[in-house]
Design goal:
This protein is mostly helical. It contains 16 helices and no strands. Helix 3 crosses helix 6. Belongs to the formin-like family. Class-I subfamily. It is found in: Membrane.
């Protein structure tokens, strides 16, 4: 006896299961891949057609934000797609979410020209602040470099040491030297083959700073902290010239290009304002953009002035240390790069000197113990040595 359960009758092909809705075939205007990407972006942004439309009519860039506006720029349809969407007169519910969104946006006159203008406006304050901070940093770097007592003292120590090394030669009475020479100090070795000229100069300044500290405190202390006072002072130069290191990462041509780009971007605002006469709705947008245009023009003019002032300060500091700015016109910020690279080497040498102090290793010898090649001469290229030659009383102990 067969107890198996009888097989169920085959389901009719094509018959719809009860309660299962039929799949609605969407009508496509856009390329399927593009429509899918736009639909994904819309879900991620979580914004409605009404919110976007209202913001475009009001010119409210703050409401949408730069991220959303940048996304809208990417959604812009081609001319052909725009015509198809405008001409579509069928059931809107049959369109995909991307097509419905774009069709609603395109109902606003010059919608994507508005988007371009609003994106410029949304980013304007951030870009202006970036430029302003950059030019302020350049000015601060110039002031810090010129006003750093320790940096100028270090230059004088290098100059004195170089003159001692070159005594008896036509390079033995230099008044100043090109800052590039600082980068060569670590390459000049002493007779021991290990100690560099920069180690020697750093030790000279450490002794000078220690003596100055002892004189100011009116007592001589042999404590560990006091012995490290001079080293701490020299090690602090890198932090003291922090703005110089920031300035070294900048490119003035790039900054100038940003200012030009910002000024050129105003044409987007002016261009869209020219369309006002052709527009019968969204007048709030034009009023808002007119107010923004006036303020933006004033801001750009102020930034132009800050750019000119910063470049002037950079030229002044370059002339102060190099004597000839013509050679540096192609790379006006090069002076900061030279100092930054030197500070990096100085930090390393200070760490090594610190270890020597812990090991009680003495950096001995004199300037004559170092050999400098003819290519490392100290030409007279600036006046900073002469300007400060009468202000070196506190350095006498290191002479």
């Amino acid at each position: 006896m067969n107890n198996s359960t009888p097989a169920a009758p085959p389901r009719e092909v094509g018959r719809k299961a009860a309660g299962v809705p039929s799949f609605r075939q969407e009508e496509r205007v856009l390329d399927p891949k593009k429509a899918q990407n736009i639909a994904i972006l819309l879900r991620a942004l979580n914004v409605t057609r009404e919110e976007v439309s209202d913001a475009l009519l009001d010119g409210n860039a703050e409401c949408l934000g730069s991220e959303l506006l940048e996304t809208l720029v990417k959604m812009a349809p081609t001319k052909e797609e725009e015509l198809k969407l405008r001409d579509y007169s069928g059931d809107l519910s049959k369109l995909g979410s991307a097509e419905r969104f774009l069709k609603a946006v395109l109902d606003i006159p010059f919608a994507f020209k508005r988007v371009d203008a609003m994106l410029y406006r949304a980013n304007f304050e951030t870009e202006i602040n970036y430029l302003r901070n950059s030019f302020e940093t350049l000015e601060a770097a110039c002031e810090d470099l010129r006003g750093s007592r320790l940096f100028l003292k270090l230059l004088e120590a290098v100059l004195r040491t170089g003159n001692r090394m070159n005594v008896g030669t036509n390079r033995g009475e230099a008044k100043a030297f090109k800052l590039d020479t600082l980068l060569k100090l670590a390459d000049v070795k002493g007779t021991d083959g290990k100690t560099t000229l920069l180690h020697f100069v750093v030790q000279e300044i450490i002794r000078s700073e220690d003596a100055k500290s002892e004189k100011e405190s009116a007592m001589i202390s042999s404590s560990k902290d006091d012995r490290k006072h001079g080293l701490k002072v020299v090690s602090g130069l890198s932090s003291e010239l922090g703005n110089v290191k920031k300035a070294a990462t900048m490119d003035f041509d790039v900054l100038h290009g940003y200012v030009n780009k910002l000024e050129t971007g105003l044409e987007k605002i002016k261009s869209v304002l020219q369309l006002e006469k052709k527009c019968t709705q969204g007048q709030r947008f034009f009023m808002s953009m007119q107010d923004f245009l006036k303020e933006a023009e004033r801001e750009i003019e102020r930034v132009r002035g800050e750019e000119r002032r910063a470049l002037g300060r950079v030229k002044d500091i370059t002339e102060y240390f190099h004597g000839d700015t013509a050679k540096e016109e192609a790379h006006p910020l090069r002076i900061f790069m030279v100092v930054r690279d030197f500070l990096s080497t100085l930090d390393q040498v200070c760490r090594e000197v610190g270890r020597m102090q812990q090991d009680r290793t003495v950096i001995g010898g004199s300037a004559r113990s170092f050999r400098i090649s003819a290519t490392s001469s100290l030409p007279v290229l600036s006046l900073y040595g002469q300007r400060r030659e009468n202000n070196s009383d506190d350095d006498s102990s290191s002479s």
